[in-house]
DNA sequence: ATTCATTTTTGTAACCGTTACACTAATGTA
DNA sequence: TACATTAGTGTAACGGTTACAAAAATGAAT
């Protein structure tokens, strides 16, 4: 998404497209790996030396309020953000911590007990081992048992 | 679940059933409302005046490690715990903050992109408005528009 | 352009949930 | 009873987040 298009998207939500805001949104579009506030800040401060981390917090809160961005549910204590609003699942590897996206169609999942609830968003978080860590885990087991060397 | 049964459950996992541990687990069984560490502590310290909050943290970490308890995914920064391990969904009301349980059958939800991943747990978190807050919200709107009074 | 009001950004300090750590208490074993 | 091990305690520190006041940038009106 081009910078100009991002600016227009912000204007539609009555958000003035200041440079920090444009860059935060652009960063989220380019880095789909659910960055933390600190990751966003450390990257952007390189080109905006006076950038304050508070600005990143404010901006993300503003975007989330406007529905442009989602804070993804995670079992960690640190917030992660995602510019992709459509419902999809996240898989967190318990070994390496990486957050993966996956596709999940919830229409067919039967829900009970939500009559009269107004559902605004759905977060799906799976946890376990990603393929890489799973393999290295197996190797490690073999080594520990004397299988290698 | 009786205290004795809880003790046996702990022993099965090689966890010595000390009094603080028994009481933390018992609290979780009796209070199915996904309490925070602070809520557990404030309740139990009344009967165990020397209880330390660190003990509550340690105990919950131990239980989670043993698979007896789950930390539920939430969009807040504060951890919440649940003694019910079977997969079920949580609904968080964005207005009052209450966390509700609901039933969801994920077997029928189609997943793509998780080949070779080892899934150990699934967290489902919906957010929106609970029936009560939804109603009071509607009333508020009517009042604001001059519908009442 | 200049002034003024409003919005945005900044930097610091405080907040709060959590963790590290060293010490004490309790428990199990010989 | 003595000793080793495990559990619990209290304090301090840590780290992500938020509050807040001051400074900078922007927009509107004259």
Plain-language structure description:
The structure is a homodimer of 149-residue chains. Chain A is of the alpha+beta class. The first copy, chain A, has two domains: 1-85, Winged helix-like DNA-binding domain superfamily/Winged helix DNA-binding domain (Arc Repressor Mutant, subunit A), CATH 1.10.10.10; 86-149, 2-Layer Sandwich (Dna Ligase, domain 1), CATH 3.30.1490.190. In chain A, 38% of the residues lie in helices and 22% in strands. Chain A has five helices and six strands, in the order H-H-H-H-E-E-E-E-E-E-H. Chain A has helices spanning 3-12, 19-30, 37-44, 53-65, 131-144; strands at residues 70-72, 80-82, 89-93, 99-105, 110-112, 118-129. In chain A, strand 3 and strand 4 (99-105) form a beta hairpin. In chain A, helix 1 (3-12) crosses helix 2 (19-30). The longest helix of chain A is centred in the C-terminal third of the chain and has 14 residues, at 131-144. Strand 5 (110-112) of chain A pairs antiparallel with strand 4 (99-105) of chain B, so a sheet runs across the interface. The first copy, chain A, binds a DNA duplex (30 and 30 nucleotides) through residues 16, 18, 20-21, 36-38, 50-55, 57-58, 77-79.
